[in-house]
């Protein structure tokens, strides 16, 4: 048996073992890919960096993964949301827009699954611009594959993304059917389409004047061609099959102007996709749970109430 086949068998066994043995499911961490089958990965001397501080920052992700936080079985609604932290495609604000969000969702009976996706500025990658989408598609498929083990309804799996993570979430919501990597295992037979989508101060457009230049450069490089700009300007990629969406933004966001959310909301309306948009008077960019702003902090309750329809 070839080494590659052996490694994949071991990978499948380890996932099954973890699902049986895990005592504290909120601490379940699973790799997205077998170690020998991470698409677009090339060997380099680069290493992942974790910076601890007021916000935990992760950069140069080498091996993407999902970290699963589950509510108690008694509180579970059967719903789940994959969470894509932001960071301009340079870093992941991993607790601020990741694990903290998962814990909030748990308090509402919703499983929170934080996606540690690879960042396109890494020199461990080739054809970098498609790598975050590869990880996002795989994360959704792997979650559906594992759903029964986590008391999740595989038809009630949504996504939420923040800032550049919002760009990745909206990319998944518009490009879920695109074939961006080769089949790995049975999980890849499942749909990558989210059942619903929440976008929080998201980067959306790379073609409009409201573009976030840092995210655009990180994902597409210094001189992207028009085809790439169009493909990743997600307001131009909305279809009738884009999942129902709720958007949150602050009017005074200078980093990622609210026009990004407005463009996406308008495109959803034009395609007949159910959509809801909340723009708050103030809050700037990167407010996460907004625990220190009484008015803005209501966005989390609005999110929860919106999810009740699914």
Task: Summarize this structure briefly.
With 310 residues, this protein is of the alpha/beta class. The protein is built from eight helices and eleven strands.
Numbering strands along the chain, what is their spatial order in the largest sheet?
1-4-7-5-8-9-10-11
SSE arrangement, N to C = HEEEEEEHEHEHEHHEHEH
Relative helix content = 25-40%
Largest sheet features: 8 strands, mixed
Average pLDDT for all residues: 93
Quantity of strands, as a count:
11
* N- and C-termini, Cα separation: 45 Å
Give structural attributes.
single chain, 310 residues, alpha/beta, 8 helices
3D architecture notes:
With 310 residues, the protein is of the alpha/beta class. Helix content is 31%, strand content 16%. It has helices at residues 3-21, 95-107, 131-146, 164-175, 213-220, 226-231, 259-270, 299-307, and strands at 28-31, 49-51, 57-59, 65-69, 80-84, 91-93, 111-116, 157-162, 197-200, 245-250, 275-280. The strands form two sheets. Strands 1-4-7-5-8-9-10-11 form an eight-stranded mixed beta sheet, with helices on both faces. Helix 7 links the parallel strand 10 and strand 11. Helix 3 (131-146) packs across helix 4. The chain is globular.
